[in-house]
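Support reply, case 0932

Customer input (verbatim):
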Amino acid sequence: MEEEENEKLGRHPVYSNTFQSYMNSVKIFLGNTYLTIPAVFSKTGWAGGMILYVSVALLNTYTMF
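Our regenerated output:
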């Protein structure tokens, strides 16, 4: 319904470019990281925590592209 209304009014949908998508992913990743760092590192130790965070960062970057 909203798409039809936008077409009638001559509005075009606004899409994010690659840089904006990347920055949104970084913002979300850092927000989640900030909230979960203590729990993750207390359960997995330094090495496990770093491996998990690098893995999540790679997955976020992959899914962004």
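We compared this against your earlier run and they match. Two observations from our side: The chain has two helices and no strands. The two ends are 29 Å apart (CA to CA). Please reopen the case if you see a mismatch on your end.
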